[in-house]
Design brief:
The chain contains seven helices and 15 strands. It is globular.
Length: about 280
């Protein structure tokens, strides 16, 4: 880990037109870069509405940049802005099987893809009388843990519901990652209960940075995103957040805090892997 880095979360207003969504994303990524961001993150399903009825309609073949309108746009955004770009998620159609995935790609400042993460834990919930949602009716789950390197250190990736499973962040932290990044789209049922709580928990348990980027809320949409894109530091303090509207959230990540908190609260040297297993082993 080295120095400090400016992170920008683009809480994007997403509509039904993919071309308009890609154009809006480009405008905001360029704006964030002009404000000094070194890394920019887009939200889950940044190029399409979120919902099981939309995944197949908006899905793209992500085998190569040339085969995907959204990947070409992301590569261009990263290269033209000179930033690391965590490209939210895009509905992916696997060309040989036809399976659908919810997939995040990461791009370096040269416009090259450096990571690809398929959502591991699918969002299946049932709040009787309030909300029932089952991604598993349409999507397949990924099966790989994903990390990527930057000049400031390594970062782990998760997508939305992945944040509820602490093992991903634990493994990333034990492997030396300085932060966890979660493109997500919590809703107005789960968001006020758990969005900030989960981010702070992942940061606190592992003494790393944690950030989650949501779409802006569209009151006309069937699925109401919570918004409130947020960055949390290794002390589990919220250092940047917003409300539900389209916005860009900026946070300066001072990586010295990781060693500072680990010295003050030395859980890394106090763990008892003779008593319980190390999930990163």
């Amino acid at each position: 880990m080295s120095g400090s880095m400016k992170l920008a979360l683009v809480q994007l207003a997403v509509g039904a037109q993919k071309t308009a969504n890609l154009s809006n994303a480009r405008t905001k990524v360029v704006e964030a870069a002009r404000m000094g961001a070194n890394m920019v993150m887009l939200p889950e399903c940044f190029n399409s509405p979120y919902g099981t009825q939309y995944f197949a309609q908006y899905a793209e073949d992500l085998r190569a940049t040339e085969s995907s309108e959204s990947l070409r746009a992301l590569s261009s955004m990263a290269k033209d802005s000179g930033v690391f770009l965590v490209g939210g998620t895009v509905p992916e159609k696997e060309s040989t099987t036809g399976d659908l995935f919810n997939t995040c790609t990461v791009w370096n400042p040269q416009g090259e893809m450096v990571a690809k993460h398929r959502k591991i834990h699918l969002f299946d919930i049932n709040f009787p009388g309030r909300m029932v949602f089952k991604e598993s009716e349409v999507l397949k789950s990924g099966n790989e843990i994903t990390e990527f390197s930057t000049p400031w250190g390594r970062f782990g990736l998760g997508i939305c519901y992945d944040i509820r499973f602490p093992e991903l962040a634990m493994i990333a932290a034990r492997r030396g990652c300085v932060g966890m990044l979660y493109p997500g789209a919590f809703n107005t049922t789960t968001g006020p209960m758990h969005w900030e709580l989960l981010l702070r928990a992942r940061a606190m348990d592992n003494q790393i940075f944690a950030a989650a980027c949501s779409p802006a809320r569209d009151i006309e949409a069937g699925y109401q995103a919570w918004g409130h894109s947020t960055v949390v530091d290794p002390y589990a303090r919220v250092i940047a957040t917003t409300d539900e509207k389209q916005d860009i959230v900026y946070a300066d990540l001072d990586f010295k805090l990781i060693q500072e908190v680990r010295k003050a609260i030395p859980i890394y040297t106090q763990r008892r892997f003779d008593v319980y297993p190390d999930v990163s082993a």
